[in-house]
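#random but structural
TW: two for the price of one
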Amino acid sequence: VDGTRDLPHFAGTGSVSECAALCRDFAYFGHQSSMECWCGNSYGKFGKGTGCQCADHNDVGVGVNCVYEVAMVGTNSSQRMQAVADGSPSKADSSATHVGKTWKISGPAEAAHLADSLVDAGFLGCFEDIADGT
């Protein structure tokens, strides 16, 4: 635990969906630098950030977090939909449930689109990670 950071719990590295899974015991997670996953139950204590490259999931920037709400990214649904998108039917089914809603998935392209939509829905913005922005 690093109390000097906006999201103080380092969970490892991974994609946005993998960070959601790693931070499943928290309300929020940040994707930072080279795919670092930081978790916490509050965010924004250092204010909005500038310079986040949240669309570039491999290198979003240093000293800033692309912050997501864990529940909105829906790790279980995203993993099942990604399995459909990857063509792994043994790991997936033909529907996904997320926050009380169920979608029928007709194929890999629709599964990938829905997984991306859930990630977009969970995105809260760019926030400074530490007080001086470095």
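TW: number two ↓
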Amino acid sequence: GEAAYRRTREAIARDLEELEREEDDAWASEFLNSDSDMGDSSAWFCPFLPSPLVRVRRMVEVVPITPADHCLDIGCGDGRVLVTAAQSTGCHCTGIDIDAGLIARAEVLAAEAGGEVEARCAFTAGDALAKRGVVAGGEGEGEGEGGDGDGD
């Protein structure tokens, strides 16, 4: 019940804290070898910094994701987190990123993982902030943009 849920959440928090403390040489290697085309830098809040695969795999291990879950990653980059989650857990995934080149890489990564993984992953190039009403809570006008959601 509630106590088991709390213990699970505490264990996840400890695992993630431990993960953050670990020194990760793979991050530096992947960051330095990133070839993302940032295009018009005025549209960027920050450059793409890939999560090291060792860290991605560990995150997917410690978060209790099931095949019934649907994961959303806003700013998904090359899709490695979502593809790994779909591959490891059977969940469905949706990724949004402003960089169409990264979305293309995410789609290739999902395809390379196999047809079942590719079918469970959907990637969209676009500005998540421009879609606030959809992402933040619903179909009503004004939602997600400071409105009360009642359309007036």
